[in-house]
Amino acid sequence: MSERDNLEISRRRLLGTVGAVGAAGLVVGAAGGAGISAAVSGDGTASANGAGGPAALTTVGSTEVMFHGKHQAGITTPLQSRGHLVAFDLVPGAGRKEAVALMRRWSATAKTLMAGKAPGQDTGVALDAGPSSLTVTFGFGRTFFDRTGLAARRPAGLDPLPAFSSDALDPRRSEGDLWVQIGADDALVAFHALRAVQKDAGDAARVRWQMNGFNRSAGATARPMTARNLMGQVDGTRNPRPTEPDFDRRIFVPAGATGAEEWMAGGSYAVVRRIRMLLDDWEKLPLGAQEKVIGRRKSDGAPLTGGTETTELDLDKRGPDGRTVIPDNAHARISAPEQNGGAAMLRRPFSFHDGIGPDGTPDAGLLFICWQADPLRGFVPVQRKLDRGDALSPFIRHEASGLFAVPGGPAEGEYVGQRLLEA
């Protein structure tokens, strides 16, 4: 038996009990290829693999996300506790041929890793772990099309984002030919995938920038809850939900797309922004002032107009002083879909902390990632309005930005982007 076989078995052996559980199954092939399930016993852990067998993986370790599907994984997949974002540029002289070979390698590696297996020449970093909800998502930047001779197939959705007055963007940490989003519920599994993707780039592409993020770990709360950001605010309450009848229309490019966007059917556009939070300034605000900036209670995310987290904002309600209870410049008011012609985007961020600067301020904030069928109808109108008067603006700084076309999920036997690169 080869070393590779041993590595693969070592990583997979802990999943051996799942087949015995039968009806529950390990993977649920949900629409879009982002279903997550696990076979667990009554105490919340997978059953033991017989007498004297190895201990079974916990629920967190055993969850597996489908690689193949209508949409790529990592878009509607529930928030993961660890993430890496990395952009690559093709090396000088590399073109379409090299891009095809690279996407074949990356797709094969992603499929292997997402199944909880170890690729060839494995580092052993995640040797004892299961899939841990690993997702690897691939996208193409605007410059990719010029460098591969595919400018005629660059969709209008990749037109450059407009400049915003609050931007302080570092071009060295923005854009890129290729973009990879990695997420997992285990930090070592996520790093393992990052290392594999970097190694697979070989001589075809070089890292342009890379960012690391995190979220609350699965199971850290007594019940599933909307995540909080590093300001302590509940963040993501009004996200579109897959159960809504118009979700696909707003988030994914339709199957009937034609022209330059035909290959994007089932895909989505990702806007990526590194947003630094000026936490020292924010934390000086008293609680009541913080809540007026956001327009929601900090304790539970409910609107200042009352109710629970999911209660609709009453934007017309006024207090005894005659002023609107939710201030006119409150973040929740300005970003509300009804204030932006129904513009909607699926936010799926990670928090980040990259150390403390010489002046003692934390380099921390949000790796903002939003998904939409058309960024000019999703992100752009909302950000334009926020740029003109959001009360949150003095406490944040947009430091990097990227826009990427993320094609639909690959069918069995396909690699990501094949419908573009081999048309």
From TrEMBL:
Domain Dyp-type peroxidase C-terminal positions: 226-409
Protein name stated in the entry: Deferrochelatase
Reaction(s) the record says it catalyses: heme b + 2 H(+) = protoporphyrin IX + Fe(2+)
Cofactor binding note of this UniProt entry: Binds 1 heme b (iron(II)-protoporphyrin IX) group non-covalently per subunit.
Gene that encodes it: efeB
Alphabetical UniProt keywords: Heme, Iron, Lyase, Metal-binding, Oxidoreductase, Peroxidase, Signal
The keyword Metal-binding is assigned to this record: yes
UniProt-listed Pfam families: Dyp_perox_C, Dyp_perox_N
EC number: 1.11.1.-
